[in-house]
Amino acid sequence: MTLPRYQQLAQTLRRQIDAHVWLPGEKLPSLRESCKQSGLSLMTVLQAYQLLESQGTLVSRPQSGYYVAPSRPLRLEHGSLHTAEQIDVNDAIFDILKAGQDSDIVPFGSAFPDPTLFPQPKLARSLASAVRRMSPHSAIANLPPGNEDLRRSIAQRYALQGVEVTPDEIVITSGAMESLGLSLQVLTQPGDWVAIESPAFYGVLQGIERRKLKAVTIPMDMEQGIDLAALEQAMATYPIKACWLMSAFQNPQGCTMNPDKKRQLVDILIRNQVALIEDDVYAELYFNGDRPNPLKMSSYRQEILHCSSFSKCLAPGFRVGWVAAGNYASRIQRLQLMSTLSASVPVQLALADFLHQGSYDAHLRRLRRQLELRQNAMRSAVLNSFPPGTRLSKPTGGYFIWVELPGKMDATKIYQQALAKRISVAPGTMFAVDNRFSHCLRLNTSFEWNTRAENAVKTLSELVYKEYNRHR
Amino acid sequence: MTLPRYQQLAQTLRRQIDAHVWLPGEKLPSLRESCKQSGLSLMTVLQAYQLLESQGTLVSRPQSGYYVAPSRPLRLEHGSLHTAEQIDVNDAIFDILKAGQDSDIVPFGSAFPDPTLFPQPKLARSLASAVRRMSPHSAIANLPPGNEDLRRSIAQRYALQGVEVTPDEIVITSGAMESLGLSLQVLTQPGDWVAIESPAFYGVLQGIERRKLKAVTIPMDMEQGIDLAALEQAMATYPIKACWLMSAFQNPQGCTMNPDKKRQLVDILIRNQVALIEDDVYAELYFNGDRPNPLKMSSYRQEILHCSSFSKCLAPGFRVGWVAAGNYASRIQRLQLMSTLSASVPVQLALADFLHQGSYDAHLRRLRRQLELRQNAMRSAVLNSFPPGTRLSKPTGGYFIWVELPGKMDATKIYQQALAKRISVAPGTMFAVDNRFSHCLRLNTSFEWNTRAENAVKTLSELVYKEYNRHR
């Protein structure tokens, strides 16, 4: 079967661009010239150019013509900048999420914390008590922005940390997933460019795909964190509409930005007048010292949509999150009215009640201690049993460790073999739009460190070693 | 300030098209001819043509050229077909929703049923009991498609009505708003055409706006219901990707399709292979006889996404809805995992528990009786006090009446004047993208028929008469 003529022409042009016949930023022959040269009709040439434009290979400039788009990937001094014009989320993500539902499988690949870590009886009492006192009008009274008591309690927690957030800018949502999605919708239109981390939480990739956005992926390092030079370069190169990242216990690598990096990042945002979506769902889970300060603490706070939830630290199944949305609060409310109307009322009331009880901080202290102990135990086990050359992150909070296997090892294979042995892990491919983390794994360290877990790490290390020896 | 040349050219072409220089469906001069004729550059002409294409005035055909789009509005034998390339939801909608939160205002404009109509103590007991028995793993176990017991109970209710729906095709959502939104996302890409009712539930207009879709609005009549000839014509004229409507107690007009109309509608869908989003949230609220059969009952059921919830008939604040999504169930699940992850777990468990108690149908019988009595009372009061020429819908279920004021009366003015007197009504402009229902009101009849309500109708009628007399 032969391709239509415009597709043939597009392919030819694409090959020429790849071969640097036309350099990034260079003007292509005009449509008229191209017609003359190719002998094709104007419509055909136009379609070819438009196809390449829709693929991001060309850009059109009003009153001027078609130009080769800035090159991708860009080689930068401090790393490399990659872009994705179209993100396709791997089907595997859904299979992995589903595997987590099977209690027969050791859930190292799970995104959820060990559910037994939470004060369920107390939450149940709060729920029962809240719903007994619930006014029939509560459904209407708790329309967006959501329950007032709960918003005030959340604002108080911000205040105690020194972050200026008013109850009015908080919108209660169905988990942080909804607040992140609403934030992205408020800041972007389909086709816009967004700067994201690489590797990133797969929810970011899904959000970008769903909204039909284009992404510039900013390199992360499990020790150094985000590459600010690359971010700066991205802002200079693409019309970035929003930046979406995690400043504390980044998922999946676990890195936390130091104060200096935070200042520089905010400077870049201010200079470029780009709004920030700050996903901060793990911040309460620090192991020592204080809660890491969010970027929201900066003077740029009105342009920072700080998203968090109770799902990682108190009540996973309740699906209650929020966004402190600064200048965007009323637009977020409207979007929510259009999409889910409001978060479920009884669970909002239950959390407001629970926060008033005053035992939340005691629970968090216990939770942090347990997560730290479990992470240390599992980290040591992995460190002691995986092949030499394995790199392991050492997060100071949260419940993930990031494992870089040595050499060219294929973590997706490990994932499949482990699953056959009833152990789930999260392969690195879940966290990027390409294969650059295909030698990495994310492990959930929140579960009880017992013989079952020990044996599972042992089995994993055997699988890894088998693959390692094949590659030597 | 002068317009850029391409915009000037676009305006000129637009004027020519409006003046029938170029007829709908006719080919426009080629780009080359147009360049020659206008003396403008190819890029400028191209931009003008593309601008008109983006506005829906022109359509381009591969390998051929630019054509004038089919005319809008089309004049049809049985009504007229209107389209909206871009929908802007009036800010007033949000103000009206907010006004409903003020208990000091008589809530005739509210979309919510009287909250005192629901079995709150029983629901509270179900919630307390469910959450006591809640396993720590429930958050994960109840990921999409949602709680299995609840899905089975819903499937049983379908089965009792003779509708073939399996628990597997049901996805539990955060209210019907989420299920409708997910359905729209699964069926369409931004820029696609969708057929909707006119007037329609404003959530439809918001959903279309949010997704950047184009709409063909199909005329409705409060007695005759949807204009099938117009729908058929719409399908023949535009590449409709989905149809979105209500077959029972349509919001806002209250009409229910008769079985013959349903058959014809399904035939049209099948002939055109267009999927249907069926919003059926009021179906349980019938006054006499049986629950109206949904379109989902037809042989085309796999292509019908039947959306409903417990928000209108049992538990308004819980925000639990569902979609019986046929062929689209797994795609809906994936989209939900990306957007809100899952519906709140405790409220799902509570509803599953409540449905097992077996008192749901007794509650519904009481609810229907009360809604009927209240609707009759309010309808009579409006009928007896509003000016001659007023048309009133007579729905056989639900809790809205639709009021068409005589002549050229401005219902938005009535809305404003009524609000000043602490009475809310829903002006017709909320339910369309243009002003064609600006002489209409929707009234919520679910509230207790007492002196306050009587006086409110009296005040309304005085406002209406004042306006009526001004127009005579």
TrEMBL record, chains A, B:
Instruction: Tell me the keywords, alphabetical order.
Output: Aminotransferase, DNA-binding, Pyridoxal phosphate, Transcription, Transcription regulation, Transferase
Supply the SMART domains for this chain: HTH_GNTR
InterPro entries in the cross-refs: Aminotransferase_I/II_large (IPR004839), HTH_trans_reg/aminotransferase (IPR051446), PyrdxlP-dep_Trfase (IPR015424), PyrdxlP-dep_Trfase_major (IPR015421), PyrdxlP-dep_Trfase_small (IPR015422), Tscrpt_reg_HTH_GntR (IPR000524), WH-like_DNA-bd_sf (IPR036388), WH_DNA-bd_sf (IPR036390)
| Family statement drawn from the similarity comment of this UniProt entry | In the C-terminal section; belongs to the class-I pyridoxal-phosphate-dependent aminotransferase family.
Taxonomic source organism: Rouxiella sp. WC2420
Superkingdom as given in the UniProt entry: Bacteria
The answer to keyword DNA damage applying to this record is no
Q: Which protein, by its recorded name, is this? A: PLP-dependent aminotransferase family protein
